[in-house]
């Protein structure tokens, strides 16, 4: 089905955009063309969608479940015991809620790592956005479970390789403290063989670094380098506890970073050297992390937090300026996950129409400044993915039912 957007604000000027077969076919003023559906986009800025570079979508069900504690206690005493009770259906319902929240706040691609991969895959396909789903790997050093998990991981990759072009598969070794050396080596080889990204929590807390030193005699970055995991395949999330030498090495190896400022602050994991990483030339995307450590999936709020936290951390208002944060949340994230993003002819027809009549968007001296420092997800009027309208005038078909199902599911889960 073809789609015509009339008079969208692109830069300073109103522009028409003709979309067909999921791609921007023509962009220009007053296009002499008709389409199956036309949207009047006057008064709306057209921008690329936001890319959530690291999350655990179904953790929406755990929003507000265990707040105000550090990572280790949070995970081991609260989150993991509850996650052990999750079914694939729960993950499906939690992921539906996550997709709803993300579309409503302008995110049309997310990089996920969670249990019951199939549940999240089903939700993504039904909701129409894009995602990279990692086949989770945790073996706690147990060789017998490692073999079962490797088999399951290969099964998932084989099953999902061609299920939906909007879904990418990735490998998800959770962290150096949950995955054995042997399994990390296996993951490195499988990633190479199947041409996959490796999605991992890296150097998130001081405890992770100290424990890694105690167990392997090396900090996480050096340990991963020894295992041959530092490469452009690696999507290293959090990356809080890095020395300048480690940043240099990560940049040399072409490792991708995903910065998670809200989660880092809420779990008090540490102050990310994000401005320094930028100066080292690292490619950095932005992510929310899961809904139990954030507690939302709104990338607008993440962008503002990233900019403000970097200024406080460096003592300079020039750190992480609005343009840089916007790039992290859009083009840099898109580059990490090989997304053909951009409002240009030939790019995938993934875009947002942002309502310039919302109070937070007025006046508009600088669109990027407003998007990063003033806007919220509520300023997104329309979301289009692969040429399909997922949300128009802030309405998504079926949203009331998703909310009711998620509420009931969370209630059941917590009741035990
Ligand atoms: C095995 S699926 C992912 C696993 O990771 C847990 N998790 C969520 N947020 C974090 C974080 O910031 N650091 C480490 N682990 C995290 C999630 O609850 C799942 O168990
Ligand atoms: Zn995480």
UniProtKB/TrEMBL annotation:
Entry GO MF terms: 5'-methylthioadenosine deaminase activity; metal ion binding; S-adenosylhomocysteine deaminase activity
Catalytic reaction(s) noted: S-methyl-5'-thioadenosine + H2O + H(+) = S-methyl-5'-thioinosine + NH4(+); S-adenosyl-L-homocysteine + H2O + H(+) = S-inosyl-L-homocysteine + NH4(+)
Keyword field: Hydrolase, Metal-binding, Zinc
Domain Amidohydrolase-related: 46-389
Cofactor: Zn(2+)
InterPro entries per the UniProt record, alphabetical: Amidohydro-rel, Deaminase_MtaD/DadD, Metal-dep_hydrolase_composite, Metal_Hydrolase, MTA/SAH_deaminase
E.C. code: 3.5.4.28, 3.5.4.31
Pfam families from the UniProt entry: Amidohydro_1
Enzyme class: hydrolase
Residues noted as binding Zn(2+) in the record, renumbered to the chain: 54, 56, 201, 289
Cofactor binding remark: Binds 1 zinc ion per subunit.
Annotated residues for binding of substrate: 83, 174, 204, 289
Function per UniProt: Catalyzes the deamination of 5-methylthioadenosine and S-adenosyl-L-homocysteine into 5-methylthioinosine and S-inosyl-L-homocysteine, respectively. Is also able to deaminate adenosine.
Family from the record: Belongs to the metallo-dependent hydrolases superfamily. MTA/SAH deaminase family.
Protein name per Swiss-Prot or TrEMBL: 5-methylthioadenosine/S-adenosylhomocysteine deaminase
């Amino acid at each position: 089905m073809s789609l015509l957007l009339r008079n969208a604000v692109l830069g300073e000027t109103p522009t028409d955009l003709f979309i067909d077969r999921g791609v921007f076919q023509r962009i220009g003023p007053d296009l002499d063309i008709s389409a199956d559906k036309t949207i009047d986009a006057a008064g709306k800025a057209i921008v690329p969608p936001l890319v959530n570079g690291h999350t655990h979508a179904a953790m929406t069900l755990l929003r507000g479940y265990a707040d105000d504690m550090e990572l280790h206690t949070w995970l081991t005493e609260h989150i993991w015991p509850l996650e052990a009770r999750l079914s694939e259906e729960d993950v499906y319902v939690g992921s539906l809620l996550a997709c709803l929240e993300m579309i409503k706040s302008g995110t049309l691609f997310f990089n996920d790592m969670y249990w019951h991969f199939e549940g999240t895959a089903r939700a993504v396909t039904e909701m129409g956005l894009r995602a990279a789903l990692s086949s989770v790997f945790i073996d706690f050093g147990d060789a017998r479970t490692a073999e079962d998990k490797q088999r399951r991981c290969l099964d998932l990759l084989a099953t999902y390789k061609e299920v939906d072009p909007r879904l990418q598969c990735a490998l998800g070794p959770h962290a150096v403290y949950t995955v054995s050396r042997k399994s990390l080596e296996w993951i490195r080889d499988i990633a190479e063989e199947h041409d996959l990204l490796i999605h991992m929590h890296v150097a998130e807390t001081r405890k992770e670094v100290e424990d890694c030193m105690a167990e392997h005699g090396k900090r996480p970055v050096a340990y991963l380098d020894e295992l041959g995991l530092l490469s452009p395949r690696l999507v290293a999330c959090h990356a809080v506890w890095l020395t300048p030498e480690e940043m240099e090495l990560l940049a040399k190896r072409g490792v991708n970073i995903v910065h998670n400022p809200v989660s880092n602050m809420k779990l008090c994991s540490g102050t990310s050297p994000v401005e320094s990483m930028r100066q080292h030339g690292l490619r950095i995307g932005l992510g929310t992390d899961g809904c139990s450590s954030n507690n939302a999936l709104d990338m607008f709020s993440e962008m503002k937090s990233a900019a403000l936290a970097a200024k406080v951390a460096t003592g300079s208002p020039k750190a992480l300026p609005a343009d840089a944060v916007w790039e992290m949340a859009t083009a840099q994230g898109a580059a990490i996950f090989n997304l053909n993003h951009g409002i240009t002819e030939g790019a995938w027809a993934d875009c947002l129409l942002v309502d310039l009549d919302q109070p937070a968007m007025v006046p508009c001296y600088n669109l990027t400044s407003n998007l990063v420092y003033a806007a919220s997800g509520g300023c997104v009027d329309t979301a289009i993915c692969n040429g399909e309208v997922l949300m128009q005038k802030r309405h998504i078909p079926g949203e009331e039912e998703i909310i009711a199902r998620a509420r009931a599911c969370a209630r059941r889960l917590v009741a035990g």
